[in-house]
Design a protein that fits this description.
single chain; 266 residues; mainly beta; Thrombin, subunit H; Pdz3 Domain; 3 helices
């Protein structure tokens, strides 16, 4: 949806769940084949995040506290660059992945701002806002943005057609995948941690060495706090892809690689 209330169908081209990033391709309609958008949409100029300095004025733009439901204007929060540093985080009681060099700001992130732009006084995009995280080093909450220096190489490759999977038509979903893992979910209202209940014989998980009672807590670097998160991460993957799982087995932490297989009907 644009800021003037127009809606366009879109499909996921590529995502980075660990950083909360997604690249979408948009069409003008849902015809088969879909019609490309012919009129260029307004876009923010890409700024140089490497030129930022501590104390620089910045502005975080987003749907503050997820209140906007239509074409309401975005919320704008001003702040300064607090630091440009590596970010090691904690998610619940687990250590999260190292995010590398990030833009730390005092502009408050909140539900609804994740994925919004971080811009300079000149209106140039220098980062994509992340969710609020807890610093492993200071035990305090951290407001951060993924810098454009991290985004630019990915965008350049995708726009040049390099290593970019073909975007499916609007409404299409990735082919379902099978790991052979069955989690101890028990259909609870609140999804529990991702403990393995059983492993299907002859499956990719069985070949990789996954065993019942293993606790899965990382999926290709993304923290897996619950069964639901594990299933959500799988939905963005295709058969034939290889993913690395970190599992806890007793007192051991093991890294296992699984090649995803197509899910058979029935």
């Amino acid at each position: 949806m644009t800021d003037d209330g127009r809606h366009f169908p879109a499909a996921l081209v590529r995502s980075d769940p660990s950083r909360g990033l997604a690249l979408l391709k948009m069409w003008a309609d849902t015809n088969t084949p879909p019609t490309p958008i012919t009129t260029p949409l307004p876009a923010l100029a890409l700024g140089d995040s490497e030129a930022l300095k501590v104390g620089d004025q910045i502005y975080a733009i987003g749907n503050a506290f997820d209140d906007a439901a239509g074409d309401e204007k975005c919320g704008v929060m001003s702040g300064v660059v607090s630091s440009l540093s590596k970010l090691d985080v904690r998610v619940g009681i687990e250590d999260g992945p190292s995010f590398g060099k990030m833009i730390i700001t005092d502009a408050p992130n909140n539900p609804g701002t994740q994925g919004g732009p971080l811009v300079t006084r000149e209106g140039k995009l220098v980062g994509i806002l992340g969710r609020v995280l807890e610093s492993k080093s200071t035990n305090t909450t951290v407001n951060f943005a993924v810098p454009t220096a991290t985004l630019k190489p990915l965008l350049e490759d995708l726009l040049a057609g390099k290593e970019a999977p073909v975007a499916p038509p609007p409404g299409a979903r990735p082919a379902p995948v099978e790991t052979g893992i069955r989690l101890l979910d028990a259909h609870l209202t609140r999804s529990p941690p991702a403990y393995v209940e059983r492993v299907l014989p002859g499956s990719a998980a069985a070949k990789a060495g996954v065993k019942p009672d293993d606790l899965i807590f990382r999926f290709d670097g993304a923290v897996v706090r619950t069964c639901r998160i594990f299933e959500d991460l799988l939905r963005n993957r295709q058969p034939g892809e290889k993913v690395k799982l970190l599992v806890k087995r007793g007192k051991e932490v093991l890294e296992l690689e699984i090649e995803l297989a197509p899910r058979k009907e029935g």
